[in-house]
Amino acid sequence: MPERDQPGPGADVVALLAEIARQNKVIQALTNRAERTSMGAGRSDFDAFQTALTLEREVRCRTADLEKALRDNERITRALRESEAKFRAVVNQPLVGISVIENGRFTFTNAKHSEIFGYTPDEFLGLGPVDLAAASDQPKVAEQMRNRESGEAKSVDYTLRGRRKDGAEIDIEVHGGVMELGEKRVFVSVVLDVSERMRAERETQALYDLLREQSIRDGLTALFNRRYLDASLERELILASRSGKNLSIVMSDLDHFKTVNDRYGHLGGDEVLRAVAAELMKVCRSGDLACRYGGEEFLLVLPDVPEAKARDRAEHMRAAVAAMPIRYDSAVISVTASFGVASFPESGKSRGELLAAADKALYAAKSGGRNQVRGTVDARPDGSAASPEKPASIESRPISQRAA
Length: 404
Known about the structure:
Blueprint: H1 9-40, H2 45-91, E1 97-102, E2 105-109, H3 111-117, H4 121-124, H5 138-149, E3 155-163, E4 169-181, E5 184-193, H6 195-216, H7 226-243, E6 247-254, H8 257-282, E7 289-292, E8 297-303, H9 307-322, E9 326-328, E10 331-333, E11 337-344, H10 351-367, E12 373-375
Parallel strand pairs: 11-12
Antiparallel strand pairs: 1-2, 1-5, 3-4, 4-5, 6-8, 6-11, 7-8, 9-10
């Protein structure tokens, strides 16, 4: 609390001693008067003696009361001094900033509060909490102040971006309460500079995000990986089933990719994969998923897209890949890709059925001459309808039988 002058114990002692002296004078005057009265009225010496004893007893009682009051005052004064010493020890500790706010302005701040914000105690007297907040957080601080002023909140706990006297921004944690002094509301706040903690938390979150991204992304192409595809495709199928909407997948495979690796080496092949992946990303909407499905295989998940539109998009991708020159060292590499399209619910209702249908359509495109798009209705090389039998799972087919 703000320092205020307390009356020293010396003033009370002087007042009590003066009272004792005054009472003694009164008693002496009464004694003299009693003696004169008893002598003038012809009273006996015994009566005078008895009166003197009574007055003396009253003097002793009054003196004892005053001495007790003096001792109580000294005890209270010592307690006040001890309490003040404890208060100063608490508010001047070097761990947290402490402030008292009255009528929206600081009326007391401790040394740590000055250290945190860079203002002297006298400079704080003309400032309020809003003045110590960064521009972006001033509305938040003003709202917290209004909540305490209105009685809506007895205490507040929040973090904000603070602003030091030198203009530097820091992270501040505030814990505030309300004291009722008569009809006046006084706010007591404890503030901590948590900049280092927040910086560490941001770095930890950034590292977590990076690790999560690396866990779901293919390191070479930056497309989503197979692990992420499996979980996401299952989720998208559930959403499509609930909403009654279509869901299409497009499976693509680079034609004669082994020849590219044999001629340009694996580094050349990696450059081709990166370039094709970047081209596929250009045709993806925000809700689409582009994944690296295998070595040179890619898979796109297209929510709310029927098979006919998915085939149109696949054809657009096929033409873009075929027309794309890929530069590697001094060479220009050209590649083509084949595409297989399948849709929910016509081609399959589960993840395994849908992937198998798309793989079968891709196999038809490969067998039909490559560099083309096939759907489930023309999954055979001759263009006839696909067999109604349940297609074998793509995972269960031997690698030697997969589309080459």
